[in-house]
Amino acid sequence: MYAEAVALQEELRHQVRLVPLPRPPRLVAGVDAICDREDKRIFGAAALYRYPEMELLEEAGAVGECPFPYRTGLLSFREVPILMAALAQLKERPDVVLVDGQGIAHPRGLGLAAHLGLVMDIPTIGVAKSRLVGEDNEPDAAAGSCNALIWKGKQVGLILRTQKGKKPLYISPGHRITLPECLEITLGCVSRYRLPLPVRQADLLSRRLRA
User: Fold this and answer.
1) In the chain, pLDDT over 90 holds for what percent of residues?
2) pTM across the whole model
3) Domains plus CATH for the chain?
């Protein structure tokens, strides 16, 4: 099971395209998923915002059977199906999706955001709370400070501090977007919380679904 999943990631990584958005985004969504304590059911959530006003337009959730065991680096095989189900319930398709997980900042270049973006053919940004690859090069303490996230001599993302005194986030492009666009949109979605609003709202909804 694991070997096949790794092989699929190695194959799909070559299909990821980091290209500029065709136009400035007007609708951005955040997605998150969480499993129950028995690791049997999974809860996915999507929150849609008007951008850059950051007006919450819609929320959607989905519940299903957990399809894949937890394994570092293989999160997408657990979460992509339920996140697709949650996004499918939104009345409008987002221009960009912010994903609670890695984009290309992944051992095989295909984290959750990259995998989801590729399967749905939609621009995605990986917004991770922890580092999976690369050097730990924390930025200055000021909000908005960032440093390059380097992995095997290549920049795969940014280490971004969204709030003064808070731990940084690890931002990386998923699919059909560039790193500068990821930075601009992520910062544009930040309010008074560490997480961008769409991701934070999706996280809260997924936890409500699980409760």
Assistant:
1) 94
2) 0.97
3) 2-210 (3.30.2170.10)
